[in-house]
Each structure stands twice: as C-alpha cells, then as structure tokens.
C-alpha cells in the first residue's frame, strides 16, 4: 500500500511539472524572464545569474533562442565581475550567445551574470512563443569542468489587441416591444407605450470587452415622442456606436382634451463657448459665433417656453478654419409644432487667434528736465525743444510720463564742453510695440566764467554810488632800454611774491580800468594791502641794488664794468 502511495505521489509531481511547463533547474545558474507577456513595443529581459553554489567559476557559455517574428534583440547588460573578465556576445537570426572567461585573479561573483534585453516587434502576431535559455561549458579557474549545465524553456504571450467592436448583442425595453426587432447591426428603433407609462428602462448587453450607457430619463407628455440613446464604447476605448429608440407615449383618453400650446420657441440660448451674433431673441432663428482653435466640441444650454422641449444635434466641431451648423429643434406642447434654431460655429485656424487691439499712441503726457526750462512749453504734440543750463551742469536727466501702455527711453549722455549744444532724444514706444515717436531736446551748456584773484570786479562802487578807485602799485622807473614799466626779472619776481604769488589767479591778466596794476580777489572786494606791499618791495630793491652791485664788483673784478652799467641803470 505504501509503495503505491509513493508511486502516485511521484506521478503527481511529474504531471504537475509537465503541465506547468517548468524544467527543473540544477544549482549554479538560474535563468529568468522579466515578464510572460507583452504588447508590441514593450521590453522583455532574460537574465542568466550565477547563484554561487558551484564555488569559483572562471568561464561559462550562455545562449538564448527566440522567435525573431515576435522579439527583437537589443543589447546585453553585464555584471561588474563579468565586465572585469573577457566576454563576447554574438547575435544571429533568432539566437544570441555569450562566452565569458575570467582574467587572471578574477572569478564570476555570485548574484552576477548577463541580462539580455529584447523588444516585442511591432505588428507581432498575437499568440504564444517560446524562449530557450542554455548555460553550459561551466569551468573553474584550474581549469576543470564543473558540469551543472542548465536548459530552461520560457513561454511568452503576445496578447490580442483591444477589440474595436462597439455593438450590442441584446437590447430590450421593460415595457413594449422594439420595431423592428433587435439586431446588432440596426441602430434605430421605435416603440409605443400606453399613457400610464411615464418611464422606461432598457436592458442592454454589449459584446465582450465593451461597455454601454443609457441616457435614462422620463417620458414626455401624452402624445409626445421621447428619444433614448444607448451608447456603446468598444474595448479600445475609442470606437463608439449609438443605438436610438424613439418611444411614443399615447395620449390620455378623456372626454375633453386640454388645449395644448403650439408655441415652439426658446426663451434663452447660451453657448458653452463664444457669444451669439446677433444677440439672442426668441423670434430670431439663425445665429453665428466664433470659437478658438482649442475648442473641439460645443454644448448649448436653452430654456423653452412652458410645456415645450428641445433637442440639440450634438456633434464635434470641424477642423480649424471650418464652419459647423448646430440645429436646436424645439417641439411645442402639442407635440406637433416645431421650430429649428440654427447656429453656425466657426472654429478658428491654429494661427487665427484674435489678438487684443493694442494702442499705437506713442506720445508723452509730460516731460520735465532736471535742470533748465523747455522752450517752447511742453506739449504732447510738439517734438522739438531747447534749453540752456549753466556751465556747472555736466549731465542731464529727463522725467517723463507716457500715455497708458507706452514706454520711453532717453539716450542718457554727458553734456558737451562749455558753449556747445548736445542733442537728447526721448524715444516713446506705443503699446503695440511698433509705433514710435522721438522727442528732441537741444541742450546748450554755457561757457565757463573766467575769474582771477588779480581781476577787478566789473561792478565795484564806492560810497554814494560812484566807482571806487582800484589800489594800484607805483609805476616802475623808466627803463634806459626804452621798455617803460617793465621791471627786471628779479624785480618782477619780488612784486609777484609781495602780491601773494602769481599775478593771475583767475585767468585774467589785463590792466585795471584806471590804468594801474590793480589787484582783485575772487570775492570781488578790492584791497590796498597787496599794492602797498608790492610798492614797498620795489623801493627796497632799488635802495639795496647799489650796495649789492658794489659788493659783487669787489669780489669779481672782471665784471666791474658790467656792474657799473647795472648801477647806472638803477
């Protein structure tokens, strides 16, 4: 009994392995598959990894056989220890093989190996295919064969593409019957229900993988028609079919029927995007509007008169630049009178977006210089001005206010030299970025005013309003050479020293108005002290020149004659 039990167990496990398509793997290398199925364009990886159970491995050979109609070989990826050795990978049609040999002093590390990357071929036939992985010629560093060759088979599935079938296999109302009888290929039906029925439910079943949706709503008044739509979306999520069922609700049987309105108008109509042209009026039935290129569908919200209903032929917009006509059908309370409002929707082209209208006004509202005053007085419509600034002003800054949306720029630069004109340009750019206007201001810089410490003020007056006399130095003695009033070089130096330095502190060296050598200061106040000091120095020089000359003559006899002449001069 125990023998048969063991035999049954062995057969069971053998059968289980056979049914699962699993090949027992010996210790050493463990091939693996990253995924068992993949859609076209997907990536699949086959890994050959060493588990470390064989000790030191210095060489091995691995191969992967595949269906080239299903998989496309891309490239291998090596572990670090594989890269440290020598590895060669060769790919042929339907097979890729690698040979690894460790370099001196290196071996294959546990947990490393080779990973082969494949891509599912575009347009691959759906179904199953196989991959065969082999690892053999495994050897140690001696070298010596280690055995434990591995052969593994993997199954790979390319799934069927999503179905585009968007049909119903069953459709039935909970009340009444469809006319004609249901067929998956027929999309429009009619049916009639008694007045007592005010709502209806449809039982619908789509094909496998598809889904359906019913616009559940109540029926209209007695004698009216209500359209039901059953939308079926295919497995691919894109393909759709719409089944329509028009349900007629019978009128209520009464001795006196109420008078039903025949008014089939809308009280309002509002588009989801854009604005109707002309403005909506219940008695105007044709309109137009424009929407941007990004808008692809349109929805209209309307309010009919009491008792009336309306329906919009919902559809997508056409391509950019095209017109699409929408019809809003209004049915009066009597169920017979109808009106149709038409809205022509123009979808702009991709580059047809309306740009906001930008101002082309490129004027200034004000312009104020940092120094000086504009001539003429500033006006937005006058573009040329002038102004004058003192010599001390070297740069100019203008403050301006442009019209709304505009900007302005000043070509900021230094002023020219004294007495010159410098042209400033204030460029105004309008809001549209294209229109420009240029205001010009010519700035005249005054010349430098020359003043001197030895110069007499032009407007010095004495007491009583009469000009005050300038202090003068005493005239020099007559020069025997005929140059009147011209002192010798040493004399001139003494005069300059007595006057406090250079005789021209302000740049002016001309004679005083009264004919003397008057001295003035930069503050414009005349003084007699410098003149008196100069006169005293001159007198001392004349008094001492004689004794100095005699002393020099006694020291330098050869120059006696010239010394005597000098004394005579003095």
How would you describe what is shown here?
- By secondary structure, this protein is mainly beta.
- The protein has 5 domains: 27-158, Immunoglobulin-like, CATH 2.60.40; 168-249, Immunoglobulin-like; 271-347, Sandwich (Immunoglobulin-like); 364-445, Immunoglobulin-like (Sandwich), CATH 2.60.40.2340; 467-561, no CATH class.
- It is 12% helix and 34% strand.
- It has 5 helices and 27 strands.
- The protein has helices spanning 2-20, 80-84, 489-498, 529-555, 560-569, and strands at 29-33, 43-50, 59-65, 71-78, 86-92, 95-101, 113-120, 127-139, 150-158, 168-173, 188-193, 202-206, 211-214, 225-233, 240-249, 266-271, 286-291, 300-304, 309-312, 323-331, 338-347, 364-369, 384-389, 398-402, 407-410, 421-429, 436-445.
- The strands form 8 sheets. A 5-stranded antiparallel beta sheet has the order 5-6-3-8-9.
- α3 (489-498) runs antiparallel to α4 and α4 (529-555) runs antiparallel to α5.
- The longest helix is centred in the C-terminal third of the chain and has 27 residues, at 529-555.
- It is flat, with a radius of gyration of 57 Å.
């Amino acid at each position: 009994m125990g023998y048969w039990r063991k035999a049954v167990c062995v057969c069971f496990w053998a059968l289980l392995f056979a049914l699962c398509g699993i090949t027992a793997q010996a210790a050493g290398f463990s091939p693996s598959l990253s995924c068992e199925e993949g859609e076209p364009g997907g990536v699949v990886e086959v890994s050959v990894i060493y588990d470390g159970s064989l000790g030191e491995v210095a060489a091995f050979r691995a191969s992967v056989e595949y269906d080239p109609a299903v998989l496309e070989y891309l490239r291998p990826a090596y572990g670090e220890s594989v890269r440290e050795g020598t590895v060669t990978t060769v790919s042929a049609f339907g097979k890729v093989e690698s040979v690894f040999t460790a370099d001196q002093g290196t071996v294959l590390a546990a947990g490393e190996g080779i990973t082969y990357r494949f891509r599912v071929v575009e347009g691959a036939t759906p179904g199953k295919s196989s991959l065969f992985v082999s690892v053999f010629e495994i050897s140690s560093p001696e070298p010596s064969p280690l055995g434990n060759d591995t052969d593994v088979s993997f199954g790979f599935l390319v799934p069927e593409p999503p179905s585009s079938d968007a049909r119903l296999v069953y459709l039935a109302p909970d009340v009444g019957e469809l006319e004609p009888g249901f067929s998956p290929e027929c999309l429009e039906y009619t049916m009639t229900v008694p007045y007592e029925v005010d709502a209806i439910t449809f039982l619908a079943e789509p094909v496998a993988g598809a889904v359906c949706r019913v616009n559940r709503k109540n029926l209209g008044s007695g004698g009216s028609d209500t359209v039901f739509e059953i939308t079926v979306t295919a497995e691919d999520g894109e393909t759709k079919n719409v089944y329509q069922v028009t349900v007629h609700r019978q009128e209520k049987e009464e001795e006196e029927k109420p008078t039903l309105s025949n008014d089939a108008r809308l009280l309002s109509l509002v588009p989801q995007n854009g604005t109707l042209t002309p403005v909506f009026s219940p008695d105007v039935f044709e309109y137009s509007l424009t929407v941007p290129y990004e808008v692809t569908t349109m929805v209209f919200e309307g309010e009919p008169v009491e008792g009336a209903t309306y329906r919009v032929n919902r559809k997508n917009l056409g391509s950019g630049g095209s017109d699409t006509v929408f019809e809003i059908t209004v049915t009066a309370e009597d169920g017979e009178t109808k009106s149709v409002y038409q809205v022509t929707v123009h979808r702009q082209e991709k580059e047809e977006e309306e740009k906001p209208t930008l101002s082309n006004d490129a004027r200034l509202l004000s312009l104020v210089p940092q120094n000086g005053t504009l001539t003429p007085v500033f006006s937005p419509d006058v573009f040329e001005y002038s102004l004058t600034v003192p010599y001390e002003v070297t740069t100019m800054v203008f403050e301006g206010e442009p019209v709304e949306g505009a900007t302005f720029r000043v070509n900021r630069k230094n002023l020219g030299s004294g007495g010159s004109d410098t042209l400033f340009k204030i460029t105004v750019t309008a809001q549209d970025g294209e229109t420009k206007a240029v205001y010009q201001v010519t700035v005249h810089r005054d010349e430098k005013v020359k003043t001197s410490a030895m110069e007499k003020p032009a407007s010095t007056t004495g007491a009583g309003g009469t000009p005050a006399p300038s202090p003068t130095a005493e005239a020099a003695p007559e020069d025997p050479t005929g140059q009147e009033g011209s002192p010798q070089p040493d004399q001139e130096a003494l005069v300059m020293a007595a006057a406090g330095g250079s005789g021209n502190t302000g740049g002016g060296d001309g004679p005083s108005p009264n004919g003397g050598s008057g001295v003035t200061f930069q503050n414009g106040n005349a003084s007699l002290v410098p003149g008196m000091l100069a006169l005293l120095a001159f007198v001392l020089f004349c008094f001492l020149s004689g004794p100095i000359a005699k002393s020099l003559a006694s020291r330098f006899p050869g120059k006696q004659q010239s010394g005597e002449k000098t004394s005579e001069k003095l």
